[in-house]
Amino acid sequence: MPGELRDIAIKDxxxxxxxxxxxxxxxxxxxxxxxxxxxDETLSSAVFAIQExxxxxxxxxxxxxxxxxxDRQQTLLWAMSKAPDFNESRGFVELILLLFTSSxxxxxxxxxxxxxxxxxxxxxxxxxxxATRFPELTILRENYYLRTWGHKP
Length: 153
Hints:
Layout: H1 3-18, H2 28-34, H3 40-51, H4 58-61, H5 64-67, H6 73-82, H7 92-97, H8 105-115, H9 123-133, H10 138-149
Protein name: Immunity protein 30 domain-containing protein
């Protein structure tokens, strides 16, 4: 299937699953194989489609992190954090900590959002340093402390 038609089909799958029009369980394996080739928008649609199935599991998305190494990882990490079997003790925090080294403010912002409400003493210094590097993140830093630790920094 040519790339453009494939992308349209995947975007349509997302809505078909949500409306219970189509059962995509037979297509999940193929969808997972294609995911590294997808652009950010189409990857997001694929993730949303998978989240409507029994394959919405932390371990479904984990192997893709080794293949997808660019900004699209944020979509996978978000999906993993929303999976019903999510447990931060399964190495999730370690995966997110790497995002704090990014030179892109948006990547660091998403890392902070993914770690809100996860109490881990390694995170506050990284959030503080991120707000120093990117002053636009100062309000998010305060929100992180309130949501996670119950007080302002």
